Amino acid sequence: MTPFSLSEDHVAIRDMARAFAAEKLAPDAVRWDEEKHFPVDVMREAAELGMGGVYIAEDVGGSGLGRLEAALIFEALATGCPTVSAYVSIHNMAAWMIDRYGSDAQRRRWLPGLVMMESLASYCLTEPGAGSDAAALKTRARREGDHYVVDGVKQFISGAGVSDLYVTMVRTGDEGAGGISTLVIEKDTPGLSFGANERKMGWNAQPTRQVILEGARVPVENRLSEEGMGFKIAMAGLDGGRLNIGACSLGGADAALEKSLAYARERRAFGRSLAEFQALQFKLADMATELEASRSFLWRAAAALDAGAPDATKLCAMAKRIATDRGFDIANEALQIHGGYGYLADYGIEKIVRDLRVHQILEGTNEIMRVIVARALIGR
Ligand SMILES: Cc1cc2nc3c(=O)[nH]c(=O)nc-3n(C[C@H](O)[C@H](O)[C@H](O)COP(=O)(O)OP(=O)(O)OC[C@H]3O[C@@H](n4cnc5c(N)ncnc54)[C@H](O)[C@@H]3O)c2cc1C
């Protein structure tokens, strides 16, 4: 591939995911939002097409693809439902952490089920007292023989209560990033429980709960890599996770733009179609331009991450901020173009706006993306 065009394989992957989104996600997305339904069965169908382990190695059943392909897939799925696409992306991120940092025995134990989404994974970093400052996390894992005894609360965990595996950052050592380790905690672990499903502005087609650990006994063999590696593992997962979330914003924005184009052609005011007003034409042109610019940059960051480029973390942070900020703005403009109808649930636009809003907050807020970029530019 040249940086500026997709190969035939890329186009085929994107079209496959787009067709799935149009057939299996879009028709039910508004209802799932209203009913707070988490469509696990539909996600398993996506997994049958290889989307449960996009960048997981093939020896454990993964698709063995790269970050650009992942960006294409999550953007395409998000044209049908940003919330479902975002959960599938988090699942992929957590599975990748096991693939990349797990032992061969751990990979063979967990990944075949994860790639098929027979088992689901959540990523547990945030705590009530540690969000942006994640290295301040307090969940304590105390070693007792061949187990850790874990106490603490993880906040805002996507998929919690339904997921089978919780890839959890815990403190095994001193204060700071170097005292953190990663444990894979299984759902049936005694001492693990969940808070109530949070009532949210958007992302209603997936649950968000606290993960509560009270004397939870987790086998030492469930630790990924060495003690003290947890913060590095968590941040490595997020580089790709940020691309994925950015891609979900692009997909939501793309769907909102398509709806706006159709609406502007058909809706009439002052004796002509909305599409004939130059002010709206310019608005649509700007939306399409900003979408394309964000997409091109996200692909550049994805290529850098795949290549292991030294500036990949900075580029992923830049891409996440641009794609999620511009994606939200485009969806919000689309709502405006729909007038009062954009505010009604039936048109599916207000749901996209609500869903995309949180992408500016999670997987590192967009302020934290600026912190990462500034550190790369001027040092700590
Ligand atoms: C729906 C939803 C799902 C989520 N899913 C998950 C999940 O699955 N797993 C998980 O681990 N977490 C998850 N999160 C948590 C999310 O990542 C955090 O909310 C986010 O990192 C921000 O942390 P906080 O909410 O504690 O805000 P805070 O860290 O308290 O930040 C508050 C404000 O201060 C700003 N701020 C903080 N520090 C700085 C700074 N140094 N410079 C400038 N501004 C700063 C922030 O940008 C923000 O605007 C989810 C959150 C939501 C809402």
Automatic annotation (TrEMBL):
**Statement: the UniProt record of this protein carries the keyword Flavoprotein:** yes
Q: Where is the Acyl-CoA dehydrogenase/oxidase N-terminal domain?
A: 7-117
Q: Which GO terms describe its biological process?
A: branched-chain amino acid catabolic process
Q: In which pathway does it act?
A: Amino-acid degradation; L-valine degradation
What keywords are assigned to this protein? Branched-chain amino acid catabolism, FAD, Flavoprotein, Oxidoreductase
TM region(s), chain numbering: none
Q: Which GO terms describe its molecular function?
A: acyl-CoA dehydrogenase activity; flavin adenine dinucleotide binding
Which Pfam families does the entry link to? Acyl-CoA_dh_1, Acyl-CoA_dh_M, Acyl-CoA_dh_N
Domain Acyl-CoA oxidase/dehydrogenase middle: residue ranges: 123-214
Cofactor (UniProt) = FAD
- The Acyl-CoA dehydrogenase/oxidase C-terminal domain sits at 228-377
SUPFAM superfamilies under this entry? Acyl-CoA dehydrogenase C-terminal domain-like, Acyl-CoA dehydrogenase NM domain-like
Q: Which domain of life is it from?
A: Bacteria
Gene3D superfamilies, alphabetized:
Acyl-CoA dehydrogenase/oxidase, N-terminal domain (1.10.540.10), Butyryl-CoA Dehydrogenase, subunit A, domain 2 (2.40.110.10), Butyryl-CoA Dehydrogenase, subunit A, domain 3 (1.20.140.10)
Family the UniProt entry places it in: Belongs to the acyl-CoA dehydrogenase family.
Return the protein name: Acyl-CoA dehydrogenase
Report the source organism.
Salinarimonas ramus
